[in-house]
Design goal:
- The complex is a heterodimer.
- Chain A is mainly beta.
- In chain A, 0% of the residues lie in helices and 50% in strands.
- Chain A has no helices and eleven strands.
- In chain A, a hairpin with a 4-residue loop joins strand 7 and strand 8.
- In chain B, the strands form two sheets. In chain B, strands 1, 3, 4, 7, 8 and 9 form a six-stranded mixed beta sheet that branches. In chain B, strands 2-6-5 form a three-stranded antiparallel beta sheet, with no helix packed on it.
- Chain B is globular, with a radius of gyration of 13 Å.
- Chain B is mostly beta strands.
- Chain B has no helices and nine strands.
- Classes of the chains: A mainly beta, B mainly beta.
């Protein structure tokens, strides 16, 4: 079965950096685009970034553009999110999600359980 | 910017029908997807491409589309359906974007 397991969350000071990882299993990782989606405490879902199956294209939400970098290692079945210049408003649970098999444009058919990032001094 | 608008809350009694709307100018051109999220859990896809239901999702969940509004309908609501529901859409034909609605809290009275 599909499994997505995030790691790397924690407490970081404003202006600091953190790298999240997402270990994937149960599907052919190298055949699918992958997303990061976040959810601030008590708030709604916010799409963060997307990377195509081969890493050829990457897209970002305006709120993180220039500060966050999405990447992947298909040999390790792992997705990453490098987060720099972190701000208090980046505090959230970060989910990795598999791009859906259901056609149309981007959607999410499997999600990890999330990792909490807290930006605070 | 591209936005999706949902009502913050909907309340129904058990056995009744709940309808959650999602409005957006691009919805006539792009598919909508619906997710259910229970407290402390990751979201789960319940409707894709406006009205299709993934395997394993109960038949009481259905979706429809009309113009700039899509609707998630839950027939015969059960207590276990109490959750937050999010609509979502995307476009990759021009400027790539993915957007969620603000979410609707469904309360089963």
């Amino acid at each position: 079965q599909v499994q997505l397991v995030e790691s790397g969350g924690g407490v970081v000071q404003p202006g600091g950096s953190l790298r999240l990882s997402c270990a994937a299993s149960g599907f052919t990782f190298s055949s699918y685009g992958m997303h990061w989606v976040r959810q601030a405490p008590g708030k709604g879902l916010e799409w963060v970034a997307f990377i195509r199956y081969d890493g050829s294209n990457k897209y970002y939400a305006d709120s993180v553009k220039g500060r966050f970098t999405i990447s992947r290692d298909n040999s390790k079945n792992t997705l990453y999110l490098q987060m720099n210049s972190l701000r208090a408003e980046d505090t959230a649970v970060y989910y990795c999600a598999k791009d859906g098999d259901y056609g149309g444009n981007s959607n999410f058919d499997y999600w990890g359980q999330g990792t909490l990032v807290t930006v605070s001094s | 910017s591209y936005e999706l608008t949902q009502p913050p809350s909907v309340s129904v009694s058990p056995g009744q029908t709940a309808r959650i709307t999602c409005s957006g100018d691009a919805l006539p051109k792009q598919y909508a997807y619906w997710y259910q999220q229970k407290p402390g859990q990751a979201p789960v896809l319940v409707i894709y491409k406006d009205s299709e239901r993934p395997s394993g999702i109960p038949e009481r969940f259905s979706g429809s589309s009309s113009g700039t509004t899509v609707t998630l309908t839950i027939s015969g609501v059960q207590a276990e359906d109490e959750a937050d529901y999010y609509c979502q859409s995307a476009d990759s034909s021009g400027t790539f974007y993915v957007v969620f609605g603000g979410g609707t809290k469904l309360t089963v009275l």
